[in-house]
Amino acid sequence: MRRKGWSWRRAAIALGCSYTHLAHMLTGRRESAVLAARIDALPISEQPYRTSGFAAKREKAIL
């Protein structure tokens, strides 16, 4: 979701579910085929995801 520019909190609002439900689904604690399909259909965010300095350095190292 970060590659599309979405934070979990903003994505939860856009998807119409709670942050907790989305987090549980993304971490494997819950399963939801409907929510997974909605996540796949999310467009690239107009408001890019902002990372902290440490997270931004880590992202660059991974990519």
Structure commentary:
This protein has one domain (2-62). With 63 residues, it is mostly helical. The two termini are 15 Å apart. The longest helix is centred in the C-terminal third of the chain and has 10 residues, at 53-62. It has helices spanning 8-15, 19-26, 33-40, 53-62. 54% of the residues lie in helices and 0% in strands.
What is shown here, in short?
By secondary structure, this protein is mainly α. Helices cover 54% and strands 0% of the residues.
Throw out a few tags for this protein.
63 residues, mainly alpha, 0% strand
Can you count the beta strands? Answer: 0
Q: Which radius of gyration do the C-alpha atoms yield?
A: 12 Å
Helix-strand sequence: HHHH
Largest sheet: none
Range of strand content:
under 5%
Shape: globular
Mean pLDDT: 86
| Overall number of structural domains | 1
Fraction in helix = 40-55%
By secondary-structure content and strand pairing, the structural class works out as mainly alpha
Q: What's the number of helices?
A: 4
Query: What low-confidence regions span 5 or more consecutive residues with pLDDT below 50?
Result: none
Q: How far is the first residue's CA from the last residue's CA?
A: 15 Å
Detail the topology: elements first, then pairings.
Blueprint (H helix, E strand, L loop, with lengths): L7 H8 L3 H8 L6 H8 L12 H10 L1
